[in-house]
Write a structure and sequence with these properties.
241 residues; mainly beta; 5-stranded mixed beta barrel; 3 helices; 14% helix; globular
């Protein structure tokens, strides 16, 4: 079976690295149950590996639903994310729970369908090709596009935006650079410092360099590490932790 065929299917997992066990070679502790699907062959020639999430005790085997796949971009060893039927995990939660091992590999999370956020900004841009390249260079990926409408839907982790070359259909006034005056788009990423350093290496111009900021949320202080950049049309993008 193509590995994508496991998405949203029942999977039986044999656990050979139980929660709390120690990796025999690298010495790290498994915070989740980790195992394999019997009678399968993965890209590395071994059985297909699985992270079992949502189970909080060591088990010998488990049967649940595959909700996502961790596709390693620099290693031929993809992983299934298997959970109880009534559970779901966001991409950020999956990243956090598998970081103990996946931090060593460049990867992406694959799901069967795009889950749309309840609020998605749509930005009018002056040139769809220039804007598309800019956002792809930031690390966004194209989920879908309508080239005939010069429209593109982009996603970075769980942050989603739509861009469309201006067509005067929904304009409420004359567009002049910088677009989007009076608003900045805040986006949470899993490793803001890593993203910042990678963009600096690409010579991306910063509107505000990486800084720590304190915000009061009710009676608590929230500390955000964040940086800001402007897109080709001047939209202000704020990336934080």
């Amino acid at each position: 079976m193509n590995i994508v065929g496991y998405l949203n299917k029942k999977v039986k997992v044999i656990i050979d690295r139980k929660m709390g066990s120690i990796h025999p070679k690298h010495g790290f502790i498994y915070p989740v149950n980790y195992g394999y699907v019997p009678n399968t062959i993965s890209g590395d020639g071994e059985e297909l590996d699985c992270y079992v999430l949502g189970i909080f005790e060591a088990v010998n085997e488990f049967e649940g639903k595959c909700i996502a796949i961790i596709h390693r971009l620099n290693d031929n060893d993809d992983k299934l994310i298997v959970v109880p039927d009534n559970r779901n995990f966001s991409d950020n939660e999956i990243e956090a729970l598998t970081e103990f091992q996946e931090r060593f590999f460049k990867h992406e999370i694959i799901r069967e369908d795009t889950v749309f956020n309840s609020l998605i900004p749509e930005l009018s841009v002056s040139n769809i090709d220039i804007s598309k390249k800019f956002y792809l260079d930031l690390g966004f990926e194209i989920k879908y596009e309508r080239k005939e409408d010069k429209f593109c839907f982009l996603q970075l982790e769980e942050n989603q935006i739509m861009i469309e070359e201006q067509n005067d259909n929904w304009n409420t006034g004359k567009l002049e650079y910088p677009y989007g005056r009076g608003i900045n788009i805040s986006m949470t990423v899993s490793d803001v410092e890593k993203m910042y350093n990678e963009l600096k290496e690409k010579n991306v111009k910063m509107f505000l360099d990486l800084e720590m900021h304190e915000y009061r949320v009710d009676n608590k202080i929230s500390i955000d590490k964040e940086f800001l950049i402007q897109d080709p049309d001047g939209y202000l993008l704020r990336f934080n932790n």
